[in-house]
Design goal:
This is Reverse transcriptase. Helices cover 43% and strands 12% of the residues. By secondary structure, the protein is an alpha+beta fold. Helix 1 packs antiparallel against helix 2, helix 1 packs parallel to helix 4 and helix 5 packs antiparallel against helix 7.
Length: 352
Amino acid sequence: MVTVTTSGECLCRVTPGSDTEHFRYLGVHFSPLGIRKPGGTLVRELANIASAPLKPQQRLKILRCFLVPRFYHQLVLSRCHLQTLKSLDRQVRAAVRKWLRLPKDVPIGYFHARCLDGRLGIPSFRTAIPALVHSRLSDMAESSCAAVRGVFCHRSVQASIRWAETALSFHGRPLIDQEARGKYWASLLHQANDGKELSECARVRESHSWVDRNSGALSGRDYVQFHHVRVNTLPTRVRTSRGRRVVGGPPIERRAGCGTTETAAHVIQGCHRTHGGRILRHDAIFRIAVNSLRQLGWSVRQEPHFHTREDLRKPDVVAVKDQVVKVIDAQVISASSSLDDSHRRKVRGRER
């Protein structure tokens, strides 16, 4: 065993007479056959995170902010194939599914890119590495050094740029910049049946802040169950019978005898058995809103009764401050209509 060091840093480790001898230079491992295949330690690192006594949200934070970026340098400077990047993404998604107890048919878009679009915010090797390669090599063309600009024109550099551009082309749609990649992953999620309800998450910060920034106050169990509700993985009859709905197959009617199919939306929002729970949830949410308004100096009335010529009007909250009146009325809608359209319909209904 021969080890070469420079300033105390190990750069080279060679075993004479062995066909597996290798050395590391600038973070990249080389062997007699060339650059070694990168990413071989990802499975071991994921297992280390899984075995540590951590909450699921802490594991995701380590994965998102530290483990995945740790492989960027090696993958960008190495010669990796798209199949290698896809394999790394599959390993990451498999680990996250175990941590959050998610079924295998959760949309892939739910795992990657920004949290504000309703996802977990885990970067994808498949799109991040080609984008970093393209950015690193393209910047050489604008260098102030003539030698660097000359290297940019070399055929190997141009071949790498073409590889990155081809890898970032999805159905004729280039994903060179970060914004385009974010929209691509958002479209994959929002086009899926389990993700279309998240299409307007980006408009309200509180709807996605608990995924990353404000997750510390949640227990691990609550964090996992929140994701199950968010991506429609609750074990209802419609959800668990996917791919098995044939004549004589498992029933999908509501077990409460409602005469309708058992979906998460019906159980949570429409079933008579959960009506009391919905009222308690509604009142708990408005207690938080009322307390916040009062702390800001608003005079608040809850569910006041206004008898008009048309009918009784009973908004949830009426807040008054400095001769300004705010009427707050909550509603739960589906993804079939936008927040703005539903708001306008609610206002028109109140006006009538």
